[in-house]
Amino acid sequence: MKGNNQDEFVKDKRFKPTEETPLPDLEIHGTWNRIIARIRHIPPLYWLIMVAIFFVLFFIFVPNYIWIIFLGVVRNQITLISLVLIFGLITISLVWSVGQRIDVWVFSYFNMHGHRKSWLDWCMLFFTQLGSGSFAMVVAVILYFSGYHLLAYAFVFGTLSLWLVVEFIKVLIHRTRPYKKIENSRIVGSQAKGSSFPSGHTSQAFFMATFLLPYYHANFFIWLVVYLMAFLVGITRIYVGMHYPRDVLGGAILGTAWGLLGVILNNSL
Q: Which of 61, 95, 164, 240 is the most buried (most CB within 10 A)?
């Protein structure tokens, strides 16, 4: 399931691989661009190692009774197990050539179809940040200073652990990002590095929705709006040229499962 295997799937002449990455239609300049460049200059492997060390130390000091509770709770969660199985099926489907052609077709529609106004690019670039780690840290700070200290700590832990899982899966799957493989694809904003599957922004957006909504006893309308915003984050990842549809779908399933796991554990401890 390596990225090189995916190259054989793109047979349509309109979508032949390109040797050079096309210039972005929308670029970020100034201080924000320098900050983003410095952060992305750090190799993903270094981030993965740092976070892995943190969690190894955390697991060492977690009492045994916590693990007993964890295993007992997860064993009886049919919804959680189903989401994990669905994610596994999506991952396996990446070797399916027909699925790759569908991915390319849907990606091309959202990324390249029609004339795109500059204001729409900026809106999509704004909404895609709702799934970023920076936005998650802002949410954590707001929770903490609003008096939800334990919830803020749990949210940060869930975000970091989800990021570790996403990066680990990306290293294993190593799916090439669409803007590197599809000719004439548009790049809105900065080029994301690393692999494509699953979408980290989408997984974070769905994790936040699933993890935080139960604590506020929101009504159906609020749930609908929040999940539509999470869905919009997934659409923006295709629009800006960073992900295929199955990357987004996998990220949505993974983020939902991770958020549900967090809710289950918090209610059990």
A: 240
pTM exceeds cut of 0.70:
yes
Q: Which domain holds residue 25?
A: 3-268
**Using one digit for the tens of pLDDT, what is the confidence trace for 54-69?**
667 766 766 776 666 6
Q: What angle do CA 194, 136, 186 make, to 5 degrees?
A: 40
Asked if residues 194 and 242 have their Cβ atoms less than 8 Å apart, the reply is no
Report the candidate in 19, 261, 247 with the shortest Cα–Cα distance to residue 162. 261
Q: Minimum mean pLDDT among 8-12, 41-45, 175-179: which range?
A: 8-12
Return d(Cα 46, Cα 260) in angstroms, integer. Answer: 29
Residue with tokens 């549809």: 245
CB 204 within 8 A of CB 183: no
Place of tokens 């064993």: 75
Q: How many domains would you assign to the chain?
A: 1
Q: Which long-range contacts (CB under 8 A, 24 or more apart) does 217-224 make?
A: none
Q: In angstroms, rounded to a whole number, what is the distance separating the alpha carbons of residues 202 and 251?
A: 5
Report CA 223 to chain centroid distance, whole Å: 20
Residues in the chain: 269
pLDDT digits (tens, 9 = 90+) for 135-172: 999 999 999 999 888 889 999 999 999 998 998 889 88
Neighbours of 225 (CB within 10 A): 12
Q: How many CB atoms lie within 10 A of CB 46?
A: 9
